[in-house]
Specification:
This protein is mainly alpha-helical and 237 residues long. Helices cover 52% and strands 6% of the residues. The chain has a domain of 154 residues.
Amino acid sequence: MLKQTIFAAAALSALSGCDIEPVPVSRPAPGAEPVAVVSRTGSAQSLGDFRAVVARVEPVAEGVCRQMRPRDNCDFNIVIDSRPGLPPNAYQTYDDAGRPVIAFTPALIAEMRNRDELSFALSHEAAHHIEGHISQTQSSAQTGAVLGAVLGQLAGLDAQGVDVVTNIGGTVGARRYSKGFELEADSLGARIAARAGYDPVRGVLYFQDAADPGDRFLGTHPPNADRIRTVQQAVGR
């Protein structure tokens, strides 16, 4: 259970006539131009900074959600996950009623160096919900698990062996599209942050100092340089 601090959003901005269209996201080709290193500026952010960013980004994200997914629940619940000992992290999930929840840990807020970084992270998590990534991941995991179970049975494995390959299949299915989903969320999140009045190109510079996952097989996140390029391209469009 999250220990929640819920922030009131500012009044909704008028969004009519300002459509956001889905933008195809592709991985950079091998040997793509290296991302230029630009120094991050600012200092550790506070809960006050976070509240200010939420007040500007939340109404924009909810407006984009209603525009792109009119049948979905677009009432974001933005919270602080203040359980002791949590590492820097932000994530999107759902409560028992199906309401989309975006959670930040205090450690992540303290790692951010300016409000542009906070706004990009918040917009990125909102984009995961708008793009339907959790449901797509669950569906892919279920498909992978079923295929693993079928293959295990055809191979004549015992019950324990079938369980093992079922779990492997579910893991492979869940991670099959995860890197692409992260880049999609970066692209849409960049445009949400920009509409809220922040600079996502400055915001994504957080990844210059963050641990780089590289391009691992079945990794959950793409290389940091790919994420920076994706944001730069999204804003350019």
